[in-house]
Amino acid sequence: MILLGTSGWQYRDWRGRFYPTGLPQRLWLEHFAARFATVEVNNAFYRLPERDTFAAWRDRTPDDFCVAVKMSRYLTHIKRLREPAEPVARFLGRATALGDRLGPVLLQLPPNLPADPAALDATLALFPADVRVAVEPRHRSWWTDATRGVLQRRRAALVWADRGGRPVTPLWRTTDFGYLRLHEGRAHPWPRYGRAALASWLRRLAAAFDDVEPAYVYFNNDPGGAAVLDAVAFAGLAGRAGRRVSRVPTGPDATGPALPPGPVGA
């Protein structure tokens, strides 16, 4: 099943677009979770929330909601995968308060971190078998059989990443779930994705994962609510193609009064 969401939910320019003007920001998560079944939390990368915060997110969301959480930059960008035991233990000690709401853990590696499959393997070995992990390397030296072997052995997903409507990573299937991040489209108005780009990504996912395997898809092009619009458009394409897809906003909730019309171009 394709699980559609956005990278984050607290964006001020979504007020009056996705969020009703009079809705207090403290209720935005409830509004979001009633319309999407998953979200990717990026702020944990900059400052790891306390365990109570993760527990509160669990209590404020429906039973079928899941939260993908980006690993703290302390492990990936400061320690650069060295001595991973303490950062991973601290992260899990807090994020596991989500209980069954915890989705994949995202490890986004620095763009200037060259390949070190042994360090990645040692890091992935610290995660329990019931915690899904997705890895987003960004240095070209990672695209080797050694990297692919580590991901397969540890049952971690290679993040498929897009920028400008095109893949910036190999399209390896390394485990039984997929993880796609869409950072910026080329359609108008910026940074929307056009139908051709969305249809191409749908075909790639359908070729790699069947309908009983989860494929997490997060739109990271948040300015102006583009991520919400593109998630709705992607869900429409997936539904017409006969693919199972998680809930997305419908009717007025899909766009809000101030969002621009659909994309044109690629």
UniProtKB/TrEMBL annotation:
Among Gene3D superfamilies, the record links this protein to:
Protein of unknown function UPF0759
InterPro entries recorded: DUF72, UPF0759_sf
Which is an annotated Pfam family here?
A: DUF72
Instruction: State the superkingdom.
Output: Bacteria
The region called Disordered is annotated at: 244-266
Q: What is this protein called?
A: Uncharacterized conserved protein YecE, DUF72 family
Which organism does this sequence originate in? Micromonospora echinaurantiaca
